[in-house]
Design brief:
It contains 13 helices and two strands, in the order ααααααααββααααα. The chain has about 270 residues and is mostly helical.
Length: about 270
């Protein structure tokens, strides 16, 4: 832990700093690009006239759009992870989350239309080597076709999540970012952060591991009312989502996203 004191991430590959005007410029650019993307491709991907060249170009344009929109998201998330007490970074995270939701709603149609391409037609498209590069994304997307709602319904869910489950996750992150622990390490009483406590729980010293784990969990137990509310609402939100999308199991979306058959996971757990 001592070796890491004073060390911070170099985020210059993303932006110069948290005040870089390019952050807001990229958010604005991504939104404008998303509107243009929708205007150019909406209704065309699922049409009979769509060919492999059109789908390939759309996927490449979509990739550039996501890169522009998610760079500010990565910057804000990393800054908040480094200093979760900062009101400035909390505000950045809230702003980029709202922008990403708008981006998602503008481009929702694209995934829905890819899901509607007939199987035999798509198989012909994927013979194009350049398009085959995106085959994993396309096939994973189409796995969720039976559980995908109409475009306007998906948009409502996205917007609802900002004040729903996303808000609860943000509450958890912001509340726990201020947590500190007092623990004796190597004969010295130290004030430790959550990440430092997690590191101690991997210590080769069994007694230190035990004390770190007990102290870490104890802090959360002191705030059980808040965490019970947070997790309870997240569970209810997930249950509602599963019902709306007609999933047989609450864990099935995870299995599908990981491309692992449920039976394999059941066998591993047994």
């Amino acid at each position: 832990m001592e070796k890491a004191k004073g060390i911070t991430w170099d985020l210059s590959a993303l932006y110069q700093n948290e005040d870089d005007p390019e952050i807001n410029a990229d958010l604005d650019k991504a939104l404008a690009t998303a509107k243009s993307f929708k205007s150019q491709y909406h209704g065309k991907i699922a049409s009979e006239s769509c060919d492999d060249k059109l789908l390939l170009q759309a996927l490449r344009d979509y990739e550039v759009l996501l890169e522009t929109g998610y760079r500010p998201y990565a910057m804000a998330s990393l800054l908040f992870t480094g200093d979760g007490k900062s009101d400035k970074f909390k505000g950045m995270v809230a702003k980029v989350q709202e922008t990403v939701t708008l981006l998602s709603n503008e481009t929702l149609f694209f995934g829905l239309e890819i899901q509607k391409i007939p199987e035999d037609k798509l198989a012909g498209f994927l013979k194009n080597e350049a398009l085959a590069h995106y085959s994993h994304h396309i096939k994973t997307l189409r796995l969720f076709t039976p559980h995908t709602l109409e475009e306007n319904e998906e948009q409502i869910i996205n917007r609802k999540n900002l004040s729903g489950k996303t808000a609860f996750v943000n509450l958890f992150d912001e509340f726990t970012a201020a947590f500190e622990w007092q623990l004796e390490v190597d004969g010295e009483e130290k004030t430790l952060t959550s990440s430092e406590m997690r590191e101690l729980q991997r210590s080769q010293d069994a007694d230190l591991r035990y004390r770190a784990k007990k102290a870490h969990d104890g802090k959360y137990a002191e705030n059980d009312l808040i965490f019970t509310n947070v997790f309870g609402n997240l569970i209810k939100d997930h249950a509602t989502d599963m019902e709306m999308r007609n999933y047989d199991s609450p864990i099935l979306p995870s299995h599908m996203g990981n491309n692992v058959p449920p039976a394999v996971v059941d066998t591993m757990m047994q």
